[in-house]
Automatic annotation (TrEMBL):
UniProt keyword Cytoplasm, yes or no: yes
GO cellular component terms attached to this protein's record: cytoplasm
Any one Pfam family match given in the protein's UniProt record, by short name: DUF2129
Organism: Enterococcus italicus (strain DSM 15952 / CCUG 50447 / LMG 22039 / TP 1.5)
The protein, known as: UPF0298 protein HMPREF9088_1195
Organism ancestry: Bacteria, Bacillati, Bacillota, Bacilli, Lactobacillales
InterPro entries the UniProt entry points to: DUF2129
Cellular location(s): Cytoplasm
Primary location recorded for the protein, binned into one broad class: cytoplasm
Keyword annotations from UniProtKB, A to Z: Cytoplasm
Protein family (similarity comment): Belongs to the UPF0298 family.
HAMAP family for this protein: UPF0298 (MF_01126)
Length: 115
């Protein structure tokens, strides 16, 4: 008897959050809310990925922390990324034959010494 086991890997939907800080000393506190992907020491911000289902609650908690200057939410998941209906089909990108013929001419490169 053979048993087939199908394990499906579920990737949680995530959203990024840019956290601008006064000081980078408390960067470890951000790790409890989500994954810290990037930290800019010069500009004092961190890029944090949060799970979509608790994004609003976590972002409000992060915004209330004393070392956070401001936060910027990512709106990329809200934007429709399928542009096929907006711009038309592939025919829109085909070269248009406008009736003009292109004639290539050979050009010689002349040096200034030989002129």
């Amino acid at each position: 008897m053979q048993v087939e086991v199908h394990h499906e890997l579920e990737v949680p939907t995530r959203r990024s959050l840019v956290v601008w800080m006064y000081s980078l000393r408390q960067i470890r506190n951000l790790r409890r809310y989500g994954s810290v992907l990037y930290i800019s020491k010069r500009m004092k911000y961190a890029l944090v990925y949060l799970n979509e289902e608790d994004f609003d609650a976590s972002s409000e908690k992060i915004e209330r922390l004393h070392f956070v200057r401001k936060i910027e939410r990512s709106y990329r998941p809200d934007i429709e990324m399928n542009f096929a209906d907006k711009i038309g089909t592939k025919r829109a990108f085909q070269p248009v034959d406008d009736g003009y013929e292109v004639e290539e001419k050979s050009t010689k490169i002349r040096l200034a010494e030989n002129v």
